[in-house]
Amino acid sequence: MPTKPTIARIWRGRTRRDVADMYEKYVRTEGIPPLERTALGVQLLREDREEETWFTTISYWPDMQAMTAFTKGEPTKVHHLDRDPELLIELPQRVEIHRILVDEQGLR
């Protein structure tokens, strides 16, 4: 039986609209693959607003120990990608760690 996640790690960042497509491609190639190899699951979300675009990455973990091992002992520290200072409007200062209380994925 597959392991169900108990922890969600959520990162949010925003770009200017004119670099949003470039940033999306960059995150897909540089930021998402390490999570796909290690986490139970990962989602990349995008919200285009009038003047900026928000990106949210949610990774799912079996427990705090697994997530802490991936983050090298610092689960709440933001690990910026190399080009984040260039492409993001500001560098996020934190990630959110949430306990998953309900996990029903029966999408219809």
From TrEMBL:
Source organism superkingdom: Bacteria
InterPro entries: Dimeric_a/b-barrel
Native organism taxonomy: Bacteria, Pseudomonadati, Pseudomonadota, Alphaproteobacteria, Hyphomicrobiales
Protein name: Antibiotic biosynthesis monooxygenase
